[in-house]
Amino acid sequence: MENIVEFKNVSRVYKVGDHEQKALDGVDLSLRGGQMTVILGPSGAGKSTLLNLLGGLDSPTSGTITVDGQDISKLSGDGLARYRAEKVGFVFQAYNLIPTLTVRENVALVSEIARDHLDPDRMLADVGLADHGRKFPSELSGGEQQRVSIARALAKNPQILLCDEPTGALDSETGVMVLKVLLRMTGQYGKTTVIVTHNQNIARIADTVVRVKNGRIQSCVTQTPESVDEVDW
Amino acid sequence: MLFRKLLRTAGKYRAQFISMIVMTALGIGVFVGFNTEWYTIERDTASLFERTGFADQRVIDASGFSHDDLEKVRNIPGVDGATLYISFNTVASDGDTVALTVTSDPDVSGFIVTSGEAYDEKNADGIWLSDRYAKENGVEEGDTLTLGYKGLNFTGRVAGLIKSGEYMICVPDPTQLMPDYSTYGYAYVSPAALRQLTGGEFYTQINVKTKLQTKEFREKIDRVFGKTMLTVSKDDTVSYAEAMGESEEGKTMGSILPVLFLAISVLTMVTTMHRLTASEKTQIGTLKALGFKDGTITAHYTSYAALIGVTGTAAGVGIGMWLGWFIMNPNGSMGTYIDMDDWSLHTPPFVWIVLLLINVFLIFIGFLSVRKMLAGTAADALRPYTPKKMRSLLIEKLPLWDKLGFGAKWNLRDNLRHKTRSAMTLFGTVGCTLLLVASFGMKDTMDAFLDTFYNNAMNYSYRINVDTEKATEEDVRSLAEKYDADTCAQASVQIDGQTSLVEIYGISHDTLRFVGDEGGYVTLSDRGAYVSRRVAEKFGVSPGGTLSFSKYGESEEYTVRIEGVLCSMSESVVMTEDYAESVGLKCPAGLLMTKADSVGPDPLIINTQSKQSIIDSFDTFLEVMYTMLVLLVGAAAVLGIVVLYNLGVMSYTERYREMAALKVLGFRDRQIGGLLISQNMWMTLIGVIIGVPAGVGVLAYLLKALASEYELDLHLGALSYVGSVALTFAVSLIVGLMISRKNKKIDMVEALKAQE
Q1: Which of A96, A121, A141 to mutate to test the interface with B (most CBs of B within 10 A)?
Q2: Interface contact A82, partner B, CB < 8 A
Q3: Mean local confidence (pLDDT), B590-594
Q4: What is the CB-side half-sphere exposure of residue B57 using CA atoms within 13 A?
Q5: pLDDT digit string (tens) for B79-111?
Q6: Any B CB within 8 A of A94 CB
Q7: How far is it, in rounded angstroms, from Cα B428 to Cα B210?
Q8: What is the pLDDT of residues B533-569, one digit of tens each?
Q9: Any idea of the CA torsion for B337, B340, B341, B346, to the nearest 10 degrees?
């Protein structure tokens, strides 16, 4: 597999009052296509910043980020919006579904922006929520909402799926179930997946584990992933 | 410490705070302003009337009254004062008309001296001249003035400059809407001067100060003189009736508009305070967890509403006083109409009570909002506010629903989820359209009114007032022939004990047209008489019916058949000469109307009045009215912008996370902005659909309130409809664009980090 993501000497500095805070400091990182990468690190290590930069939610202060051959670090607001619409799917800890749209409408929403989108009904069926299409997010459990979120992210048919603490708001049993769905879906649709978490156990199901500390990459290890069922949650 | 928090929170929610303060200030401003206007008119005119001895009743007899007659009147129980009085039009050397007035007792129907010498009844050459007329014509104290009357000249010295209640609204006749001091004024001279001018004392009126009711007074007067006398109460004088009419208008304006603004202000307060306390819920919980008592927290959040209420009220009172001053000052709009010396502003006491109640109510809204958030334990209060859960809508069952795009569904559900906010948005757009339609409609109506009466109905170039004492019927006829003039005879009559006017026309040169009740012009028929709308309404008569009246000083009663109803400038009964003759009514024609380019001097002509001079006096009237309308249109725009902006910001805040999620998904700022604007546009469309008929309704109500002064037909041109709708949409679009610009600032990372 070729590298699909390249970070070259990427820094992100935030100004907090008169102080400058380096969230990322000269990061170099390559991620392979079709693999699952888990980014681990304590709070404030810079892992979410890394994910936000990769997802086009934020731009680096310096350095370049190349995704599938496209330098996204210098893209304008509209350019980044197009990038987010076509290339990446997001799954958040807080699901971030639109409360005034039904489950199906939340998934179908992406058809308004993504050219190469997938069938929303099929996506819902794939995450096991075919019967819940007419419900509103508030009528679903947390696990179900996160599955809708996965369906919505993948319905855009993105190259990369980015997950920020996807099980952080769930109990462990539901979290395992969501991870299973995530793994099955990304495998089924052949997506490059990046999960940011502070849960060490999740790292065991990844192809690559990146450890971040103080805004720098501490290690980047490629491993043989364990199955979800093998992990002691 | 909490006070600092209050100020910082006000800074954080400044859009909401400012908009609520602006709405409250506007509502209170309009409320205080118009109420101050009418109350000031009532108080200041009453003061002038009091100080100048404005008469309550006028007994009129063209054959004159003697000092003995005056004594008889003075001896009537209930009469507080009486004077022999005469006022007749004289011609100044520059051709202006000056109503020369004499009162035998300066305490009744007198004047106040604003500069110069005090009144001296022995001064035989002193003239006390209207100060407004003097200023307009460059006349100063000590100047010599020559006034001509029927070939006689009186030359006197301007002893003082004055104001008089009798001439507070100084117009030569009711057809002239506004005073024009450049051509018409008044002056007082002493009885000694009158003797010098006419060789004797001759008074056509006894003016009376009395608290007796008109009916009772008339009965007593008729008994004293042994016949039916023509009496005119102050209610029928231009100065009093018009001033009270202005006061009534102010009362109407002071009731409709403030209710609209204050209702919006209160509803905005309900929505915004709820929103504010909801978004501060965790802080409320934190304060509670820290050990602050519920009462302290309640007082703190209630003080937000108090801050808004008090600031809005203070600003509103300022705006109101300015509005009151703007209308009621000697150089302001009312100053061109009413001539008073004292323009001090007065606000009715109930206004302060209402303001207090409004503030109590606003604070109560604040109290209710925070109480809801404080409910339960500290842990309950610490939990963030959760909006109501979504439920399927009824319309989702319609096949059409599935055809709607995501944006339409998103916006529709948002509207139904936040019903109060949506209702408020609707209220704002309805209010904006309503004010615009009513304002433009008022302009159209007045334009049509002026066009109908002054541009088209008055088809003459001059009105000639003939001296009916000198001129014989034959003289009048030959004068009419000379100028190809039509004739008019006027007589004051009594109908059911009330004073009215009968006008008998001889129209053969199309110098005057009559406006029908249904619009269009009617040719007077010889089959019956016509009544103006106000007469028809006052005496409950309609075509086919009859009306009986008697001329003042005569016992004979005339009964006329009502042929039709006219829309008229004056409150009168109108008929042709032939019809008048058929019912035995005879009056000498004293008014000629001609299309001639000029009218030469003639001993039989008292004075002439050009149509142009009448039309010129409209300009001031229109200027006053248009200024008011511009203010109203401005208020409509402010209302629209403030309400929509506040609610737009609220909607934006409430949907911030949703918009952040859309942005993460790849929606562009423009697309999200488009969704917000389209929601605004749909709400505006509904608002306009309701606002246009509501505006027409308010206009109709305003016209009804004016019906005692003008017989107005509602006119609303296509351009006004289009303009009102377009302006409302423009306001909505501008606000939509202002709000959607904020999309660029949505911090996706921060927004989505937050807890659900």
Answers
A1: A96
A2: yes
A3: 91
A4: 26
A5: 999 999 999 888 888 778 899 999 999 999 999
A6: yes
A7: 51
A8: 989 988 999 999 999 998 876 778 899 999 999 988 7
A9: -100
| A94·B663 Cβ contact <8 A | no
Q: Chain A contact for B403, CB < 8 A?
A: no
Extended beta strands in B472-614, E state: 486-495, 498-506, 514-516, 521-522, 529-532, 546-551, 557-567, 572-576, 591-594, 605-610
Longest dimension (CA), chain B: 102
Question: Cα angle at B363 between B18 and B687, to 5 degrees?
Answer: 55
Output the pLDDT for position B470: 78
User: Contacts of residue A146 in chain B, CB cutoff 8 Å?
Assistant: none
Query: What is the rounded distance in angstroms from the CA atom of residue B316 to the CA atom of residue B265?
Result: 12
Q: Which tokens belong to B619?
A: 């300009």
Please tell me if residue B656 touches chain A, with a CB cutoff of 8 Å. Answer: no
Give the model confidence (pLDDT) of B311-341 as tens digits: 999 999 999 999 899 888 888 778 888 999 9
Chain A closest-CA separation from residue B752 CA (Å): 7
Chain A residues touching residue B402 (CB < 8 angstroms): none
Chain B residue closest in CA terms to A137: B390
What the block records as the tokens of B630 is 């511009």
Cα separation, A36 vs A157, whole angstroms: 16
Nearest by CB to B657, from A57, A96, A156: name it: A96
| pLDDT for the residue numbered A182 | 84
pLDDT of residue B151: 75
Q: In the structure, what pLDDT confidence band is assigned to residue B140 with cuts at 50, 70 and 90?
A: very high
pLDDT in tens, A75-131: 988 888 889 988 999 998 888 888 888 899 899 988 888 888 999 999 999 888 999
Burial A3-39 (b: 16+ CB within 10 A, else e): ebbbbbebebeeeeeeeeebbbeebebebbeebbbbb
| Range from A200-204, B319-323, B615-619, B718-722 carrying the lowest mean pLDDT | B615-619
Distance CA B95, CA A229 (A): 113
Contacts of A84 in chain B (CB under 8 A): 663-666
Closest CA to A93 of A23, A195, A185, A181: A195
Residues of chain B with C-beta less than 8 angstroms from the C-beta of A136: 389-392
**What percent of chain B lies above the pLDDT cut of 90?**
37
Does B404 touch chain A if contact means CB atoms closer than 8 Å? no
Helical residues (DSSP H) of B375-405, grouped into ranges: 378-382, 399-403
Chain A CB contacts of B658 below 8 Å: 98-100
- Give the tokens for residue B42: 């009532």
Of A57, A78, A100, Cβ closest to residue B668: A78
Closest partner residue to A109 (CB to CB) among B663, B665, B748 is B665
Alpha-carbon distance of B596 to B237, in angstroms, equals 32
Rounded to the nearest 5 degrees, what angle is found at the Cα of B425, between the Cα atoms of B422 and B428? 150
Q: Summarize pLDDT for B608-649 with one digit per residue, the tens.
A: 888 887 777 677 667 777 887 888 888 888 888 888 888 888
Q: Sketch the domain layout of chain B as residue ranges.
A: 1-56+267-385, 57-210, 418-458+614-756, 462-596
Give ipTM to 2 decimals. 0.83
Instruction: Please identify among residues 112-151 of chain A the ones whose CB lies closer than 8 Å to any CB of chain B.
Output: 112-114, 134, 136-139
Secondary structure (H, E, C), B307-327: HHHHHHHHHHHHHHHHHHHHH
The model's pLDDT over A174-185, given as tens digits with 9 standing for 90+, comes to 888 888 888 888
CA-to-CA separations, B574 to B433, B484, B565, B569, in angstroms, rounded: 41, 21, 9, 12
| Tokens representing residue A32 in the block | 């392979």
Q: Is B744 on the interface with A (CB under 8 A)?
A: yes
For residue A151, the model assigns a pLDDT of: 92
> What is the per-residue pLDDT for A233?
65
